[in-house]
Amino acid sequence: MRAAVLHEIGQDKLDVLDDVEAVGFGPGRVRIRVRATGLCHSDLSAMAGVLPQPGPFVPGHEGAGEIVEVGEGVRNLKTGDRVVVCWLPACGSCPACKRGQTQLCLAGFLNAGTPNFKRPAGDVFGFAGTGTFAEEVVVDAGCAVPIPDDVPFDIAALIGCGVTTGLGAALNTADVEAGSSVAVIGCGGVGISAIQGARLKGAAEIVAVDPVVSRREAALKFGATRAISPEELADAKQSVTAGEGFDYVFEVVGRSTTARTAYEATRRGGTLVVVGAGALDDFLQLSMFELFFDEKRILPSMYGGGDVLRSYERTIALWRAGRIDLAGLITHRVPLSDINEALDQMRTGVALRTCIEI
């Protein structure tokens, strides 16, 4: 079986090998033939060591495919079912799940410590307990979510992470108010999805902030009312909000420097939504006085801040109704053999989402 493997954390290239085997199949598990997978910035962060992940590992967590084998005890899936891979499944019984905060369930993270693959040289992990840069992956049945036949695999893959995260940040976490002002810092696939969510909620002004010209141009097509470079944010704050600051600011980069910039762009009493996944040792500094005096809400958004299965269903309904554009997010397509080309497209910012066809 072919898969793209990172041998050591810190390397910037993947090695596409044909001696990889998906392992772990058994009761409660399913084997998925991956048909399409998106490249998310979290994959790059894991490769660089920003996000914790044991190695060697197969990146990829934003995938879709079809069930080829079902383990004993699996009742809701059968061979041939089309599914999206959910990298953060809910166990349904932990305190977070019982409170209705299924996006905070830790069951999926525990999967990351068990190898998903093996080679003659030894065990290989899958990123976030999945590893969709492979022809096949074996996961818990809860990680395989059935999708309707009319949802293409490439669209379904996006729903598996980036779209759910960005839309949910605006719809669930922030619950953007109609007529409000919004700024989105970082306009890749997740940021563009947050822009679409803010538009759905009726935001009057949506300012897209990104250093890459092509991403700014794309943001305007997806609902931003203006698109600017980071250096222009202070001027936009003045012209759009008369210097008061935006009602909502979404940080979709995952760095303390941009989070601090986002905080300063948020009005007093406004809402800063932290969407980007950052490093364990990157600390955001705020004074106790400004926290008290500004009364700004700081809301982290984990995987869109809501029930994942409901979010998938809502996204499909919105896509079917033409209320959101998912196909337009896919700006590049490459075969698995050209995975390193996809990495370069993400690093340079020329791609919103690259679909890897497997």
What's a concise summary of this model?
Helices cover 30% and strands 26% of the residues. It has 358 residues and is an alpha/beta fold. The model has no long low-confidence stretch (mean pLDDT 96).
Helix content: 25-40%
Strand content: 25-35%
Q: Tell me, briefly, the overall form.
A: globular
What is the arithmetic mean of pLDDT?
96
Unreliable runs, pLDDT <50, ≥5 residues? none
The largest sheet, given as strand count, sense and whether it forms a barrel, is: 7 strands, mixed
Describe this structure in words.
α5 runs parallel beside α6 and α5 (162-174) crosses α11. 51% of the residues are buried. This protein starts with a strand and ends with a strand. The protein has twelve helices and 19 strands. β18, α12 and β19 (353-357) form a beta-alpha-beta unit. With 358 residues, it is α/β, with parallel strands linked by helices.
Keywords summarizing the entry:
358 residues; alpha/beta; seven-stranded mixed β-sheet; six-stranded parallel β-sheet; 12 helices; globular
Give me the secondary-structure topology.
Blueprint: E1 3-5, E2 15-17, E3 21-22, E4 29-38, H1 41-48, E5 57-58, E6 62-70, E7 82-85, H2 95-98, H3 107-111, E8 117-119, E9 122-126, E10 136-140, E11 144-146, H4 153-159, H5 162-174, E12 181-185, H6 189-200, E13 205-209, H7 213-221, E14 226-228, H8 233-241, E15 246-251, H9 256-265, E16 266-274, H10 288-294, E17 297-300, H11 308-320, E18 330-335, H12 339-348, E19 353-357
Parallel strand pairs: 5-9, 12-13, 12-15, 13-14, 15-16, 16-17, 18-19
Antiparallel strand pairs: 1-2, 3-8, 4-6, 4-10, 4-19, 6-7, 7-11, 8-9
Helix pairs in contact: 5-6, 5-11
